[in-house]
Amino acid sequence: MAIENALPALREALEADPCFDLPSSRGEFEQSGDLCEFLVFLFGGSPFYDGKPAADLLSPLCNCEDAYERFVDHLVSVFFGPSGNFEGEEGLRTTMSRLRPRVLAPKPVPPVLVYSIENELVHA
Q1: Residue 52: closest CA among 79, 72, 60, 71
Q2: Cα–Cα nearest to 91, from 79, 102, 103, 101
Q3: CB of 35 closer than 8 Å to CB of 29
Q4: Rounded CA gap, 15 and 19, in Å?
Q5: Which end of the chain has fewer CB atoms within 10 angstroms, the N or the C?
Q6: CB neighbours of 86 closer than 8 A, spacing ≥ 6?
């Protein structure tokens, strides 16, 4: 619930930053629960995440190294503020650093061939 309550502050911080073009990705904040679900997972509030892939979720916001770093700075600012929770901040920055290559240079996933056959045709 705390993360959901912090999303408006994150959106305001990103809107105030000229580095981000929020109108094109506004849906992530207003319609999709994926960003909230992703952040809950990121902060350890959920053991798994089955929402939109991190690259699909963050790439519209973070299209270069600078934007990614600024996004991480905004996350830290909104969620840790002046509290000085150095451990939490360092953990978040480390996690986001590991995600950086997946967001900024995602590797293409080869298509998976799926075959379908009618049940009447399947017999031993």
Answers
A1: 60
A2: 79
A3: yes
A4: 9
A5: C
A6: none
